């Protein structure tokens, strides 16, 4: 081969090789490098190329553009909550209307407002009325601060404590809310530290959406001095109170009903025996039990709503304490060992329960078929209920539900095991109207609690 032809052959081979690589590059195809990584051969050696070789994979890198969130965890709903932030003298549960919270959404048209509104009727102004905001009814609770007598309130499902009144009444020891939270009775000692004063007030009304007032003035009147006992009617419209009266025949106890709606008073009971505890389970009967003591036989009676037909229900039971069902047919009672029973007023028979507690640590359901109790975990040998009343004994309670028909007793909450644990000696138990919440006061510190039942 001549030198000239050999030179032409070399030039042709070089041009062909260059053309081959240009063809591959124009199609974006690259040979595979070691480790299966793609490499753009021409781009690596072309300093003017706009493309840069892909960085080597060094494993996953942290994304610093936003915080890394933990996987979503299912949180257990807290059923037991402390309601009050202070010691309370008493509380009342009622149903209250409130504005319904709505999810953010585009603005809604006014009532009757459309893209092409219809013309107004003949003679009409054609003005449009705004749509009323949606409302709902929810369980609310009001309570009285022991130190100041100020009233506070909150809803049960959203604990946001709000001050309702600013009237100062120092050292209130007992408070009752009647008329579905619309009135209050407060009891406290006068300056002489001997005379029990009882103050009654109809509370200022609240208006829907206008719950911002914190310093409502509480005005009212006083009931007789040294009232011994007060009980609220089942419909919360009346109270029954007992006070001592002196006459030529000596001291006696007078029982009077007071309507919280019209202030009407009616005397329906009097007795030479002065040590009574009352209860008003329904509009037909009021019960009266002798104040209990461990070594003294106790008795229980009932009278009708007008003070007639005094009837003995139970008797000759040391340390007797009682709680009558809403229908009046059953009586929960305990003796000086805190052994608990159900007494049937129709058959005059008693059923032994599997719990030991005091009836005043219990509350009946509206259907008289179940009740809830704060049941002590441990009961030592003592003079009950005297030592408990006097503060010498304190209990650590669990919350139990008892079904009267089946006799089943179920522990539904142990406060000391919930939320890190608080030791509770439960008193003043109450249910809301729908029996969705159980409220009680801890006797150890007088704080208000609620337990969601459903």
Overview of the molecule:
It is a single chain. The longest helix has 24 residues, at 3-26. A hairpin with a 6-residue loop joins strand 15 (285-290) and strand 16 (297-304). The strands form seven sheets. The protein has a four-stranded antiparallel sheet, with no helix packed on it. A four-stranded antiparallel sheet has the order 2-3-4-5, with no helix packed on it. A four-stranded antiparallel sheet has the order 6-7-8-9, with no helix packed on it. The protein has three helices and 28 strands. It is mainly beta. The protein has a domain at 79-100 and 133-222. Residues 31-72, 102-134 are annotated as: Disordered. Keywords: Membrane, Transmembrane, Transmembrane helix. The chain crosses the membrane at residues 6-25.
Question: Which features characterize this protein?
Answer:
single chain; 454 residues; four-stranded antiparallel sheet; 28 strands; 40% strand; elongated; transmembrane; transmembrane helix; membrane
Please describe the topology of this protein.
Elements (H helix, E strand, L loop, with lengths): L2 H24 L14 H5 L34 E3 L5 E12 L35 E11 L5 E5 L6 E2 L8 E7 L4 E7 L6 E7 L17 E3 L4 E6 L5 E10 L2 E10 L5 E7 L4 E7 L2 E6 L6 E8 L6 E8 L2 E4 L5 E5 L4 E6 L4 E8 L5 E3 L5 E7 L9 H4 L7 E7 L5 E5 L12 E6 L5 E6 L4 E6 L2
Antiparallel strand pairs: 1-28, 2-3, 3-4, 4-5, 6-7, 7-8, 8-9, 10-11, 11-12, 12-13, 14-15, 15-16, 16-17, 18-19, 19-20, 20-21, 22-23, 23-24, 24-25, 26-27, 27-28
- Kindly report the average pLDDT value: 83
Strand residues, percent: 35-45%
The protein's oligomeric status is single chain
Q: For the CA atoms, what is the radius of gyration? A: 39 Å
* SS-derived structural category: mainly beta
Strand order of the largest sheet: 1-28-27-26
Distance, first to last CA: 104 Å
Share in helix: under 10%
Poorly predicted segments: 27-76, 107-115
Number of helical segments with 4 or more residues: 3
Shape: elongated
- Find the count of extended strands (DSSP E, 2+ residues): 28
Instruction: Report the major sheet.
Output: 4 strands, antiparallel
Region (Disordered): 31-72, 102-134
Transmembrane segments: 6-25
Keywords: Membrane, Transmembrane, Transmembrane helix
């Amino acid at each position: 081969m001549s030198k000239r032809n050999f030179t032409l052959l070399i030039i042709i081979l070089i041009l062909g090789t260059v053309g081959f690589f240009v063809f591959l590059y124009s199609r974006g195809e690259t040979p595979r490098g070691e480790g299966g990584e793609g490499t753009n051969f021409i781009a690596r050696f072309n300093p003017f190329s706009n493309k840069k070789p892909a960085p080597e994979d060094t494993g996953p890198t942290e994304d610093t553009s936003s915080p890394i969130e933990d996987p979503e965890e299912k949180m257990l709903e807290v059923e037991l909550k402390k309601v009050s932030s202070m010691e309370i003298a008493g509380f009342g549960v009622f149903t209250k209307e409130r504005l319904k919270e709505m999810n953010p959404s585009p603005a809604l048209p006014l009532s009757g407002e459309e893209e092409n509104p219809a013309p107004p009727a003949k003679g009409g102004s054609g003005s449009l009325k705004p749509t009323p905001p949606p409302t709902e009814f929810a369980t609310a609770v009001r309570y009285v601060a022991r130190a100041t007598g100020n009233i506070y309130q909150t809803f049960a499902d959203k604990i946001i404590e709000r001050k309702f009144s600013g009237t100062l009444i120092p050292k209130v020891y007992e408070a009752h809310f009647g008329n579905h939270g619309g009135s209050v009775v407060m009891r406290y000692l006068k300056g002489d530290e001997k005379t029990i004063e009882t103050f009654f007030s109809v509370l200022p009304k609240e208006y829907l959406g206008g719950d911002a007032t914190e310093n409502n003035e509480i005005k009212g009147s006083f009931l007789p001095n040294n009232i011994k006992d007060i009980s609220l009617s089942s419909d919360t419209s009346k109270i029954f109170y007992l006070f001592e009266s002196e006459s030529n025949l000596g001291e006696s106890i007078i029982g009077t009903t007071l309507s919280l709606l019209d202030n009407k008073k009616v005397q329906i009971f009097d007795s030479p025996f002065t040590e009574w505890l009352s209860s008003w389970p329904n509009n037909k009967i009021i019960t009266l039990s002798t104040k209990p003591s461990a070594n003294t036989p106790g008795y229980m009676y009932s009278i009708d709503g007008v003070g007639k037909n005094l009837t003995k229900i139970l008797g000759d039971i040391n340390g007797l304490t009682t709680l009558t069902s809403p229908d009046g047919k059953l009586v929960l009672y305990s003796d000086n060992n805190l052994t608990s029973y159900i007494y049937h007023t129709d058959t005059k028979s008693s059923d032994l329960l599997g719990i030991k507690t005091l009836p005043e640590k219990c509350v009946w359901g509206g259907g008289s078929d179940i009740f809830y109790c704060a049941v002590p975990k441990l009961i030592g040998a003592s003079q009950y209920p005297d030592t408990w009343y006097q503060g010498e004994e304190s209990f650590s309670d669990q919350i139990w539900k008892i079904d009267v028909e089946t006799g089943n007793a179920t522990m539904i909450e142990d406060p000391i095991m919930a939320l890190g644990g608080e030791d509770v000696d439960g008193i003043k138990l109450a249910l809301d109207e729908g029996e969705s919440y159980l409220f009680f006061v801890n006797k150890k510190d007088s704080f208000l609690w609620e337990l969601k039942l459903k």
